[in-house]
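Researcher: Excuse me, tokens okay?
***
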Amino acid sequence: MATYLEFEKKIEQIQEDIDGARAKNDEYAIEAHENELEKEVAKTMKGLSDYQKLQLARHPDRPYALDYIRYIMTDAYEIHGDRAFRDDPAILCYLGYIDGQKTMVIGEQKGRGTKHKLKRNFGMPNPEGYRKALRAVRLAEKFNIPVLMLIDTPGAYPGLGAEERGQSEAIAKNLFEFANIKVPMISVVIGEGGSGGALAIGVGDKLAMMRYSVFAVISPEGCAAILWNDPKKVEQAAKALKITPEDLLSHGLVDDVLDEPLIGAHRTKEESAMVVKEYFLEQVKALKELTVEQMLEKRYEHLTSVGAFSEE
């Protein structure tokens, strides 16, 4: 069954009315309720607070990386392991085709249900996950294959074992290496982009965010705990952190905001996947018109401009 957040309750009620009308085969009632639903969605979704957008980014029904891979890829073949320690299930690497374009897709996978959440470590990669991603990207470079990276993590795993195996070094090495990879690199935040765990697969030619995704240096809960020692101030922290696509775009920290359907990707998984597919193919086409040297120069300029500001 679909999960509805508190601010989606009116949408849930109208959807129940539509389902009831369909059961009765009442076409007049269906049309009336669908019009009502369209108005309610526009009213609800256009007035969301930053915290409500955070809730949508974490929505349990929101499509994860594996959902996107299944919707947009054909002949997909999974690549396992970092050739050093083990295979990290929190990071997925798939080689296949997107509309005939050979592509390497790397994504962070949270998992659904207790069993799969534990298997995927709630989408928090260990260093071997980032090393697996680097291995996959190098393979893509060797065979001149564009890379699509799907960001969706609360952050890199902060456990003792991860630190012992070089978590910070693995993230830093990805940032360094990805900046010089000689194939198109496109990153999309599909849900939650948390700290270095997101940055580790966020370096490339383009960084885009879905309409209801978030990207932050720390979770609002962590921010509230550090600044005010009060977890109840999470809504205040979400607003202060400027984690929404609109805020980040205005500061030049992301390149594009992708218009997933207004009702949200958690209600329109396949349609949202098509939005990502079209954006990826469009960007790859544009990047292929550049020489490798031009592409790397533009990427370098793009990365070094992040965080720049002037005082007047």
The chain has two domains: 10-46, 52-304. Residues 10-46 form one domain. The two ends are 54 Å apart (CA to CA). The first helix runs from residue 9 to 23.
